[in-house]
Amino acid sequence: MKQVEKIWAELSAKAQEVETPQESTELSEEVKVELNAIADLKKQSEKLSQEYDELSRSARRYLGELDSIADKAFALEKRANVVEDNAKELVKKINELGMDIPSDLKSASYEASANRSVAGQLGQVTRKASDAIGGIE
């Protein structure tokens, strides 16, 4: 009888093992693929951030140079205004004397006017570019 009880106990223990399967710690292939995709996207996103940071640093390096160009262009515009005003005053005096305006004076006046205009435009454009780059975060 002891032998029967022993066999019965062994069989009962084995039956319980079969009823309660052991938990698997392995991930399914589908879950592994999803985790790999997430890791790949994270790497790509980090690389994009690094590339943007590098571009932003490059743009900021030129910010000071743009400001300097704008300042010089506006100073040139002011000097061209003075030259243009002096030329107009000289033309007025020559006209009062009843003389013909020399072609050199006409060309110098025209050149000063053109330089004033383009220097002002250059100053405005470079200032806007500087402001735009400065606004990048």
Topology (elements, then pairings):
Layout: H1 2-19, H2 29-96, H3 103-134
Helix pairs in contact: 2-3
Quick recap:
With about 140 residues, the chain is mainly α. It has helices at about 1-20, 30-95, 105-135.
Defining key terms:
137 residues, mainly alpha, 3 helices, rod-shaped
Summarize the structure in words.
This protein has one domain. The longest helix has 68 residues, at 29-96. It is mainly α. It has helices spanning 2-19, 29-96, 103-134. α2 (29-96) packs antiparallel against α3 (103-134).
Distance between the termini: 86 Å
Low-confidence stretches: none
Strand tally: 0
How many structural domains does the protein architecture include? 1
By helix and strand content, what is the structural category? mainly alpha
Radius of gyration: 42 Å
Secondary structure tally, helices: 3
Order of helices and strands: HHH
Backbone shape: rod-shaped
Report the portion of residues in β strands: under 5%
Biggest β-sheet description: none
What percent of residues adopt helix (DSSP H or I)?
Answer: over 70%
